[in-house]
Amino acid sequence: MQEQMERRRFLGLSKYTDDGLCPPYSIGKYEFSEACTGCGDCISVCPEKILRISERSRLAVVDFGKGSCSFCGACVDACKEGALVKTGKAPWAMKAVISSNCLSYQKIACRACADFCEMRAIRFHPGLGGQQTPDLDSEVCTGCGACLVACPNGSIEMREVKLQEEVL
Ligand code: SF4
Ligand code: SF4
Ligand code: SF4
Fold first, then answer.
1. What is the Å distance from ligand 3's center to 66 Cα?
2. Ligand 3 in contact with 103 (CB < 6 A)?
3. Structural domains for the chain
4. Residue 59: how many CA atoms within 13 Å on its side-chain side?
5. For ligand 3, what atom is nearest to the CA of residue 112?
6. I need a surface site. Which of 27, 68, 79, 144 has the fewest CB within 10 A?
7. Which pTM does this prediction carry?
8. Rounded to an integer, what distance in angstroms lies between the CA atom of residue 28 and that of residue 49?
């Protein structure tokens, strides 16, 4: 199975396309693309309604446009293909990243992201010119997406971020 996946990956035959984020608890980007059949079982049980089938890849993907992830694990329990598995580690490597078009950098008062972050991963501190600017602690961020949903300016995206301790 592993050898087959490696070969498909080498030949560019993997179903994986960069079309949306793999769901939390995915067994790995490429491994997930091989295991997920697009049956939709995870989608129907997700209480937050943030999963959908990608039209391009026909795989389950996360859509933060509808809400954030509570990491309830219902999708894992529903997946019969073993594409989503709890390992005891963090559900995924996704972290929120604030872009330079954030309203606070334009001296517009906004703290919506911090207000919606249950982990309190976003703090504001005085920046150049005295305006308050956000500082996001990736060590604390779980990648739940609540800040992305709350941001009125589309200034937050989710990225796979390797923390220092994972790189070492
Ligand atoms: S962990 Fe829960 S909220 Fe998150 S995608 Fe799975 S079912 Fe939805
Ligand atoms: S993704 Fe979730 S935990 Fe991370 S900063 Fe945003 S709201 Fe906080
Ligand atoms: S909610 Fe968006 S625009 Fe507002 S401070 Fe946070 S990142 Fe900036």
1. 18
2. yes
3. 2-78 (3.30.70.20), 94-160 (3.30.70.20)
4. 25
5. 1
6. 27
7. 0.85
8. 22
Angle at 88 between CA 16 and CA 121, to 5 degrees: 85
pLDDT in single tens digits along all 168 residues of the chain:
444 444 434 443 334 445 678 999 999 888 999 999 999 999 999 999 999 999 999 999 999 988 999 999 999 999 999 999 999 999 999 999 999 999 998 889 999 999 999 999 999 998 777 788 999 999 999 999 999 999 999 999 999 877 655 544
Q: Helix, strand, coil proportions of the chain in percent (round to 5)? A: 30, 15, 55
| Distance of CA 128 from the midpoint of ligand 1 (Å) | 39
